[in-house]
Amino acid sequence: MPSTATVMKLKRPLWNSISTLKYCSSSALDVLRPGDILKQLRIFSMSDITEYSKLTHDSNPLHFDLELARNAGFTDIPVPGMLVASLFPRIIASHFPGAVYVKQTLDFRSPVFVGDKIVGEVQASNIRQMKQKFLVKFMTRCFKCDDNVVISGEATAILPTLTVELVNNHD
Known about the structure:
Blueprint: E1 7-11, E2 18-22, E3 37-43, H1 46-56, H2 66-71, H3 81-85, H4 87-95, E4 100-108, E5 117-130, E6 133-144, E7 149-159
Domain MaoC-like: 46-133
Protein name: MaoC-like domain-containing protein
Organism: Rehmannia glutinosa (Chinese foxglove)
């Protein structure tokens, strides 16, 4: 049986989504424990920004006009911060179907640009049982592959179970 420090990686069929689960303290490799980390890699495209804009009606020209973005001090067109932060509920829900997201704080530290490789990470920091469900607090962060943190914060979710599902994510 693998040790509790084993890192399990599950490659996804899509090029821009890789999920990783690192178990730091669990003796049962499929049960979430404080310290456990769930990650996904995502590369945002211009198409992602367009679809996000259509869905949210956020048509800020900063995300579509390179000249305007450069005049605002960016080197390229920035990906909307809330689109990047959407990695957090995606990670949680993909591993805990039926999870209810109840709180999220966000600190936007650095811009993300189309084509950047971004890793979204949630780390369980506190788990409390509530009847037959679990209230879990997660430390959240997104970072570029060079370890530059672009978003940090905390999330709270109600999970129907602590059993971690390693499922395929579809974009």
